[in-house]
Every structure is written in C-alpha cells, then in structure tokens.
Amino acid sequence: MTERVVLAYSGGLDTSVAIPYLAEKMNAEVVCVAVDLGQGGEDMEAIQKRAIDCGAAESVVVDAKEEFAADFCVPALQANALYMDRYPLVSSLSRPLIAKHLVTAAQQFGGTIVSHGCTGKGNDQVRFEAGLAALAPDLKVVAPARDFAWTRDKAIEYAEAKGLPIETSKKNPFSIDQNLWGRAVETGFLEDIWNGPTEEVYSYTADPSQPREPDEVVLTFEAGVPVKIDGRSLTPYEIIDELNKRAGAQGVGRIDMVEDRLVGIKSREVYEAPGAIALINAHMELENVTVERDLARFKRGVDQRWSELVYDGLWFSPLKDALDALIRQAQKHVSGDVRMTLHAGKATVTGRRSEESLYDFSLATYDTGDTFDQSLAKGFVQLFSLPAKIAAARDARKG
C-alpha cells in the first residue's frame, strides 16, 4: 500500500516544490492541506488548484477563520500575550491550529506521515512538531527544507526543472507569514539590523506619519471576550477583521524588534498587528478597572509565562492548560466598554466604564465628597514600613 504524506501547504515556492519531491523521495502520495486563517490577499481556490497542478493526490482547504479568532486569538487577548512585551504571537498562534487540521486530514485520508516547509533555524518546526507529538504521536514527520538541506536556490532550480506552475523569481526579498492576528516579515535587507524598514515592507498598516483624521472606537467586552464595536454585536473574527482595517488605516501596530528565538539565535522581525495591538491595549485597561490588585499583579507574571509557552510551541501542554484555567477565572469580571482613539500609529484609551468596576469615585476623588479616611493612613504607613525600618536599624548597628 502506498504511503500518504499530509503536507501543510501554503501555496508558495517551498511547499509547492515539496509535493513532487516528497512523492519521489518517499514513494508516496501527497495530500495538501491549506488553512484559511483570515490572512487575506490569497485566493484559496487558486492555492487548492495549484497543489493539484504540482502533483498532489488530494488538496484540501480548511476555512478556520472563526475558529482561529475564537479559540486562539481570544485566549491570547485574555492573556495580553506579548512575547518580550512586544510581539503579539502572530505565527505562534496559528501553528497549533494548523497541526490540529493536519492530524484531522491524516485521519481522513489515511496519512502516515506529516510534512511542513520549515527550516531548521526557525521556531515553527518546533511549534508544528510539538503540536503533532501531543495530538498524534504515531505520525512520522518529514521537513524537506530541514531534513534534506534545501536552499532557496535549489528549490527554484527544482521548480523550473519540473515546470511547476509557481513564481520562482527573487523579486520579493522577504519571508512573510500572515493571518488574522497580524503579519510577520523577515529576511532580505532586514537581516542587517541597522537598516530601517521601508514602506514596501508593510501591507496591513498605512504610514502613521501621514496626516489623517483620528478614528474613535468603543469596544465592548464580556468576561474578557470582545463582543461589540460601537454597539454593533459581532463575532471575534469580525471584530478583529474590522479593527485590522480601522487601526491599520491609522498605522497602529507596527513593531520592529530583535527577538530571542527558541533555537538560541537572535532574529530581526518586523510585525504588523493593528487589530491585536488595539484589542490588547483596550483589554489591559479594562482589566485595570475590574481585576483586584493582587490577582492583577499575579496575572501579569502568568501572562508573560503563557506568552513564552505559546511562542515556544507548547500550546498543548499541562502548564499552559493550568495557566488557561487561571486566566479564565481572572476574566470573570472583565466586562464593560473601552473607548479608544486610533491615530498616528497609536491606539490610545480615552474612556472606560463597567458595572464590574472596582474604581470608586468617592474613594479616589480629592475634592468634596471624599470618603477615604486619611486618618488611618499614618498607622498603615508605619506598620507597612516597619520591616524595612527594622532591617535598616540592624544594618546601621553592623556599620
């Protein structure tokens, strides 16, 4: 019986070349799985057909836009997930979902091997394979670019020799990954970290320095889930999609950073995540209003660890499951409205209101009507600072 390889297919050079190469190398039929994650700008029907034209035995397109938004982007939002306090996990979030659909396709089409187009330098090989190991440990994994030392030059030469119906020029110097949550750009002249990104790098965002009228938006959350824009009830996918357009038009969400990759090297990455950054800013501020102080302090550490786990490819892991439970509990009262101004590359919170608010005007005000009993403060300060005072006295005695 001929083996079947289930390939995570993007429609680009590397995965298109992988179809005939895997068929020859492994004497197998190739089943291509393309997953629509709301990336836009790509004709999924054309990608499906291209896989067949390149020699695939089966070609499947999965519409996972709503699933990605609700089950992956929303948990990231509730965790205020920013790797190294800046990167909103654009690629990291998509890989476990793609892995899930690869396993489903393997079960449907009798696949025994799963393949992806990642190199040995990147994080995505870990994300795919850690997910596959958790979901279907019996499946074998092959990564042609990594396991058979493919280079871009070799891939172009192979594609031309096979007459594959794909663009093989070097006009686009960048490696790009994009989905609903954002867009990641690397390689090309960006590998020199002194070079500034030019406008051609960007697609999701307009130049924030250009003059334009600001855009005011009101976001409504229920238990940490975005449910409305300007009073209109929408799905998480629809909300993120609209904010990508509105915040993107204002240049919100551009990030240029050198990050610590899981494999141990530093990498220069340029990201665009207008909807993600706007939503995270709003959600953080609503948490400031509705989450009790000690829980909020503890959750900030949980958020950071959650981000690191997902970045490192451990979406399906016991620790992440445990952190998910704490984050869900912390979202219990995170309901209300946040008003933001989108303008000049920033998403600025200008108002917040919530029936779950812990903000008490009468306690916070310095004007008439203040109910805070300041006479209690002197003794509180003395007791609160007592351990430091005692330690300082000890140190003074010791010289």
Characterization of this structure:
This protein is α/β, with parallel strands linked by helices. It folds into three domains: 3-173, HUPs (Rossmann fold, 3-Layer(aba) Sandwich); 176-353, Argininosuccinate synthetase, chain A, domain 2; 361-397, Up-down Bundle (Single alpha-helices involved in coiled-coils or other helix-helix interfaces). Helices cover 43% and strands 21% of the residues. The protein has 14 helices and 14 strands. The chain has helices spanning 13-25, 44-53, 65-78, 90-109, 124-135, 144-147, 152-162, 236-249, 274-290, 293-311, 318-330, 361-364, 377-384, 386-397; strands at 3-8, 28-36, 58-63, 113-115, 140-142, 175-179, 182-186, 215-222, 225-229, 232-233, 254-260, 266-272, 336-343, 346-353. The strands form three sheets. The protein has a five-stranded parallel β-sheet, sandwiched between helices. Strands 10-9-8-13-14 form a five-stranded antiparallel β-sheet. Helix 4 (90-109) packs across helix 5. The model has no long low-confidence stretch (mean pLDDT 94).
The total strand number stands at: 14
Give the CATH superfamily of the largest domain: Argininosuccinate synthetase, chain A, domain 2
Named CATH architecture of the largest domain: Alpha-Beta Complex
CATH class of the largest domain: Alpha Beta
